[in-house]
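Discussion board: Methods & Data

I've been asked by a reviewer to show the raw model output for two of the constructs in my manuscript, not just the figures. I'm not sure how much to include, so I'm pasting the format here to get opinions. Each protein appears as its amino acid sequence followed by a line of discrete structure tokens. Is this the kind of thing reviewers expect to see in a supplement, or should I convert it first? Here is construct A:
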Amino acid sequence: MILPPLILASTSPYRRELLTRLRLAFESIAPGLPEEHLDRESPADRSLRLALAKAQAVARLHPGALVIGSDQVAAVGEQLLGKPGDAAGCRAQLAILSGKTARFFTACALLGVGAGVRLAHVDTTTVVFRALSPAEIERYVASEQPYDCAGGFKAEGMGVALFEGIESQDPTALIGLPLIWLAGALRGAGYHLP
């Protein structure tokens, strides 16, 4: 059985690194979509819509491939946190997160136009942040420079020191790609994974 080529619809180095853990050959292609927020859209719905849209954009151009799309939305109550972009943005987001509980909604879609595959999943990770002093925030941001990470931290790095606790079904989801679900979906599509 010849499996379709696997494409990750993302330019995220974090998602690429995570997908390499499954030891499958894949190509990364930028989906080229704006990530706008729609009024009254929940964070979970937004992450799912964007994951599907990214996968669909690439699948239209590569109908013989199996395409993975993913998106993550962070929320503290009703406030959404995106990628901070710079040190000031990181400090501001971490100040908001200090002493609070945040939820990270990480959606993943697997689409194969030719194979008739259309699967999607949203993983929710709850992170409880400890109270952070301005000096702690400053040291962390200067050390790790997580400008491209929702919430302004890297859980796979020193960012874990900012937490009091974490609740998750899949620790890779917080980094940006829920590998437990994805591995199962890929096995279902015929890929050999242990």
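Construct B, same format:
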Amino acid sequence: MTTAGPRRWRRALISLVALAGLLALLLAGPLSVMASGTVDLSTPWYAARQDRTGQAPDPALERQAVVQVYGARAMRWRGAFAIHPWIAVKREGAAAYTTYQVIGWRAMRGGQALVTTEGAEPDRHWYGAPPQLLVEHRGPHAQALIDRIESAVQRYPWPDRYRAWPGPNSNTFVAWVARDVPGLGLDLPPTAIGKDWLGPATWVAPAPSGTGWQVSLWGLAGATLAREEGLEVQLLGLAFGVDVNDARLRLPGWGLP
């Protein structure tokens, strides 16, 4: 009886220390990204770069069909944690690209979060952040993918909803399309926060790459095992693991340069 109280206090203290250590581990990556200067914390959105990077082939020169998926760090401090992705398609012989993405501030202003842009320049900076090409297909395979991508976009279940964390958000949308079109072969980085939000009543689904499976509880806790993603554990929307296929670690904050 005399030792029950101290034991409870010790267990509580150990639990608090373990929780603090876990949070420190999860936040170490994003905090180091901010400290490294990778994320621009000062430039106003209206003054940030939005010029092209030259990663999208010129439609006047590339007559084949093209499918590309880009990701760029989100604006300001959010970029230390997450990316914003979008899908770009150009049919064979088309003179311009079409992009598909979910934009949070559109929904916050009463509009539709899912945005389709005809005649887009898909390789532009995302408000100062350079886009990284996550996957690309050209030729007949890309042409076949476009039909499936457009169909998946039309069937996306949450076109009017947006929640930055844990989802549905822009990463939820791109991951949903990727699962519906496994031929896309998209391996989203661990910074694609929201990719693991599977819906209010879905806990098991294919991995976004289509090469394995994942389980997730509303994007707050889960795990993925797939050839492309490797073994990834998600906690509170942050993901870490080992990607054997690409021989690299998957760490919170360090998914994109």
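Answer (T.O., handling editor elsewhere):
This is acceptable in a supplement if you add a one-line summary per construct. For B, something like: The chain has one domain: 42-250.
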